[in-house]
UniProtKB/TrEMBL annotation:
Keywords in alphabetical order: DNA-binding, Transcription, Transcription regulation
Name of this protein: LysR family transcriptional regulator
Presence of keyword Hydrolase: no
InterPro entries xref list: LysR_HTH_N, LysR_subst-bd, WH-like_DNA-bd_sf, WH_DNA-bd_sf
PANTHER family to which the protein is assigned, alphabetical: LYSR SUBSTRATE-BINDING, TRANSCRIPTIONAL DUAL REGULATOR HCAR-RELATED
Name of a matching Pfam family: LysR_substrate
Length: 302
């Protein structure tokens, strides 16, 4: 197989465009003798004559024109590669793999992706749903580039592997059956619900969050039913089987469910994004983080 040298091929291409060795040398900031030497070397590498005398000048041989006809698509593809790399370097293109816990996907990731489609359509986001703690395992293993999780599940801030970016303090509202005696009670607090049957997961972050919130209010919740999905939890609340704490970003509710705010001392869960240390400034990742921050920002009033 012939030895292809792109630098020398560019010189040959420029000679075709400029017509003379002198003009080629000026265009490429070379000396005429250097141009001639490079083209002589290229002819030797390819094993065919590339130039022939034409009066006091030289012109391309048929072999040279054949070579250029076949290398033109290569130059075109290299131009595309240059453009793609420039876009990537400026955060205008690239792929970012995001691992996110279930409620973060519709509440934060989907709005961020929609915004990026409008502003940076060549930034691609690939989403992988994962439980809050699992997201960090995926990040550490290099299977995702960015993890959305709960601060309660995050490794220590001193962990040298990750950089954390706070995104959202997500308030917890209480879900009650619409016909519950306290559904419309003014100034509702968690303490008012100490005697209720509570619905939450048997283990994991939501069990811990519910227990901690109730214990901070002065009681230990009685777990009437165990469920981890919001569809199941809210369906049981609607059926009058108990009450539950629901993050505001979990949104959906049944027609027979009332969500009540719990006042200034309401419990919250803190949502954070994490990247591997040093990766936050990668252009495409920075674009996704910016879109997530915007999605997490409170909507303007008015």
């Amino acid at each position: 197989m012939a030895e292809w040298d792109l630098r020398k091929l560019r010189i040959l291409r420029t000679l075709r465009e400029r017509g003379t060795v002198t003009a080629t040398a000026e265009a490429l900031h070379m000396t005429p003798s250097a141009v001639s030497q490079q083209l002589t070397n290229l002819a030797a590498q390819l094993g065919v004559p590339l130039l022939e005398a034409h009066g006091r000048r030289v012109r391309l041989t048929d072999a040279a024109r054949l070579v250029l006809a076949h290398t033109e698509p290569v130059f075109e593809q290299l131009e595309r590669a240059d453009a793609a790399l420039a876009a990537y370097a400026h955060g205008e293109a690239g792929e970012v793999r995001v691992g996110a816990f279930p409620t973060a996907v519709p509440a934060l990731v989907v709005p961020a992706v929609r915004a990026l489609r409008a502003t940076h359509p060549r930034v691609t986001v690939r989403v992988r749903e994962a439980e809050a703690a699992e997201a960090y395992d995926l990040l550490a293993a290099g299977e995702v580039d960015l993890a959305l999780s709960l601060a309660a599940e995050a490794p220590s801030a001193a962990d040298p592997r990750f950089t954390h970016v706070p995104l959202l303090a997500d308030p917890l509202d209480v879900a009650l059956p619409r016909d519950h005696p306290l559904a419309s009670a003014p100034g509702l607090t968690l303490t008012d619900l100490a005697a209720e049957s509570w619905i939450f997961g048997g283990s994991g972050p939501w069990s811990d969050i519910t227990r901690r919130a109730c214990e901070a209010a002065g009681f230990s919740p009685h777990q009437g039913h165990s469920a981890s999905g919001w569809t199941a939890i809210l369906a049981m609340v609607e059926a009058g089987m108990g009450v539950a704490l629901v993050p505001r970003t979990a949104a959906g509710r049944g027609a027979g469910v009332v969500l009540r705010e719990l006042g200034a001392d309401r419990p919250v869960r803190h949502v954070v994004a994490a990247v591997r240390r040093g990766a936050a400034d990668a252009p495409a990742t920075a674009r996704v983080l910016q879109a997530l921050r915007h999605a997490a920002a409170p909507a303007p009033e008015g």
